[in-house]
Amino acid sequence: MAVLVPCLVQLRADVDAIAPGRDRSSDGTIGDRAHQDRVSDHNDDETGRVPIRDADTKHEVHALDLDVNLREPGLTMEAVVQHVVGRCRSGAERRLRYVIYNERIWEASNGWRRRSYSGDNPHTQHAHFSASYDSRHEASTASWHLEEIPVALTDADKKWLSATINTAVAAELRGWTEENPDSTKTPRERGRVGGWIRMSEQRARVRHEQLLAAIEQAVRN
User: Fold this and answer.
1) Who's near 177: CB < 8 A, 6+ residues apart?
2) SS3 176
3) What are the residues whose beta carbons fall under 8 Å from the beta carbon of 12, sequence distance 6 or more?
4) Which of 38, 172, 191, 218 sits a CA distance of 20 to 30 A from 154?
5) Which element (helix H / strand E) includes 4?
6) C-alpha pair distances (Å), 198 with each of 78, 201, 205
7) What is the pTM of this model?
8) What is the bridge-based pairing of β-strands 126-131 and 104-107?
9) What's the confidence (pLDDT) of residue 164?
10) Cα–Cα dist 107/52, whole Å
């Protein structure tokens, strides 16, 4: 029985790592009868109808379908596809021949430029990745660097950042007042110190909001 080429096994594992609870109902590797009746990378490369024969004698398939529902806040299959295609386009990744997703296709033979895809399956429920038949590329289990995909900040992320910033600001203010105890100052001086602390806290809150906005903008870009 045919098995999936190692590079796509690694791609699936890397997707599982960033989205462990993802839906797998639309995943696929070995083609069904419909695939076997036509040329497809989902067919056994030794006995089936495939576009290319590789150099080894292993029974392998060179295509992987991954369900679009990643069930991970802020992470989408669109982001995964664009990350992978971007690496292919830059030359950093050479293990794929083409990617199909949501009525679009990107191909190595076309410089990884996007064009419309009008096949029978629009690939809206899963993304399709077809691997190279080059022995070195298909066997590579190097990382696909999916951990580099930027994701939007969740409410939990924002709460954690807020708590972290507030704790740091409070510690700075506490350290300053401990070094400058009010007991050694006149009432007028204590009033000035209190006003300075309140002003500092207000500025810290503004900087806190600006920092969160900057982080969110950086993530979106």
Assistant:
1) 193, 197
2) helix
3) 4, 27, 64, 66
4) 172
5) strand 3-4
6) 46, 5, 11
7) 0.72
8) unpaired
9) 72
10) 15
Structure tokens at 166: 């507030």
CA distance 15 to 84: 11
Question: Are 43 and 133 contacting, i.e. CB atoms less than 8 angstroms apart?
Answer: no
Helix (H) or strand (E) holding 67: strand 63-67
Could you report the per-residue pLDDT of 167-180, keeping only the tens digit for each?
Answer: 766 666 666 555 55
Cα(158)–Cα(197) distance, integer angstroms: 25
pLDDT per residue rounded down to tens, the chain (221 residues): 899 999 999 999 999 999 999 999 999 998 777 777 889 999 999 998 999 999 999 999 999 999 999 999 889 999 999 999 999 999 999 999 999 999 999 999 999 999 999 988 999 999 999 999 999 999 999 999 999 998 766 677 667 766 776 676 666 666 655 555 554 455 555 555 555 555 555 666 666 666 666 666 665 55
Q: What is the pLDDT of residues 162-219, one digit of tens each?
A: 677 667 666 666 665 555 555 445 555 555 555 555 555 566 666 666 666 666 666 5
Q: pLDDT at position 159, please?
A: 74
Residues 34, 165 contacting (CB under 8 angstroms): no
For residue 184 the two structure tokens come to 């050694």
Q: At what angle do helices 155-179 and 187-220 cross, to 10 degrees?
A: 150
DSSP string across 94-162: -SEEEEEETTEEEEGGGTT-EEE--SSS--SSEEEEEE---HHHHT------GGGS--PPPHHHHHHHH
